[in-house]
Design a protein that fits this description.
Blueprint lengths: L19 E7 L9 H15 L14 E7 L7 H13 L17 H47 L19 H12 L6 E2 L1 E9 L3 H4 L4 E8 L3 H13 L4 H5 L7 E7 L6 H10 L7 H4 L2 E10 L8 E7 L2
Antiparallel strand pairs: 1-2, 1-7, 3-7, 4-5, 5-6, 7-8
Helix pairs in contact: 3-4, 3-6
Length: 318
């Protein structure tokens, strides 16, 4: 729950994050002209600079919708792998139980292999679920159309339009004639789009959520919770270990894309939010409310400060 910053608002952002996160990423490049992706990326970079940049602990990051947040890396491995990992750590005399699996930004290959396997399973199950939903809908539509047309044939007499000769043979109404178009219309697309609903100004002090707050102000885009997005989140939640936000805390999935994590002193961001919301149908803000295609499913190490985050692996979505 958001709270207004106190009179002792911090002027720098120094929160230390932990764990791995699963992201849904659009194509992040500024080489695509005035596309929604390019405008979003440029807007985020501009906000980070206006909030003081690195000297204030504010760093730009890639646009993304967080699907899972703060997964304990140790939970990625099964019992045998975890035991082997512990033994290896003992041999290396690492005494800190919270030691990260990756050091100096070098991805641990064992963890990467597990993450690649998990996101591949997610994408495969997502693709299969879309096909299953399409078939299920098709069957229901065929049954519905069949029953409706049987009723029409039983209770109605065909009427010949005035511009058709009585000698012409009319094409009979059949279930197959009427269901093909319907099935195409009801087909469940496996393409994922991130559609912004509104701009949110979100104060998140350190004492929020029982002391788990980031101690910052967040400007974010709240996204439409589409059927495809909810379906993919459900699949990811089953494939990956429990995360802090949705698994351990049993929180609801509220899709969003953060644009900046700013010090609590940057209260002017609330006016930016109001401007973006009021002028959402005008350039350049109109680009932020257009659907953006989600291109990749990825796993990130979100351990440490934002400047220390790095992508472990990614896979292109269908």
């Amino acid at each position: 729950m958001s709270e207004q910053p106190s009179s002792h608002a911090t002027t720098t952002f120094d929160h230390v994050f932990s764990g791995y996160s699963v992201w849904l990423e659009p194509e992040a490049t500024t080489d695509c002209g005035e596309t929604s992706e390019a405008v979003l990326l440029e807007t985020m970079a501009k906000l980070a600079k206006q909030c003081g940049g690195p000297k204030n602990g504010v760093y730009p990051f890639l646009p993304h919708c967080t699907m899972l947040y703060n997964i304990n890396p140790r939970n990625l491995f099964n019992d045998k792998q975890s035991k082997n990992r512990v033994e290896e750590e003992k041999k290396n005399d690492f005494e800190n139980e919270e030691r990260q699996f990756s050091d100096a930004g070098v991805v641990d290959m064992e963890a990467k292999k597990v993450c690649v396997d998990l996101i591949e399973r997610c994408v495969q199950e997502y693709r299969s679920s879309c096909i299953s939903h399409t078939l299920e809908r098709s069957i229901k539509i065929v049954e519905l159309e069949g029953s409706q047309h049987e009723e029409i044939r039983a209770t109605s007499k065909p009427t010949i339009p005035a511009n058709v000769s009585k000698n012409e043979e009319l094409r009979p109404i059949t279930t197959s004639n009427c269901t093909t178009t319907k099935v195409k219309q009801e087909r469940v697309s496996n393409i994922l789009y991130l559609q912004s609903e509104s701009v949110i100004y979100f104060p998140y002090p350190k004492h929020a959520d029982n002391g788990k707050g980031f101690g910052c102000l967040i400007l974010l885009l709240k996204l439409n919770r589409t059927e495809q997005l909810a379906n993919l989140h459900s699949i990811i939640s089953k494939v990956f270990p429990r995360d802090e936000r949705h698994g351990e805390a049993s929180g609801n999935f509220i899709p969003h894309m953060a644009m900046v994590y700013a010090p609590e002193s940057e209260v002017w961001l609330e006016e930016v939010k109001k401007t973006m919301q009021a002028k959402k149908h005008e350039p350049p803000y109109v680009s932020l409310v257009k659907p953006i295609r989600a291109k990749y499913l990825s796993v990130w190490s979100t351990q440490g400060r934002i400047s220390e985050w790095y992508r472990i692996c990614k896979i292109e979505l269908p």
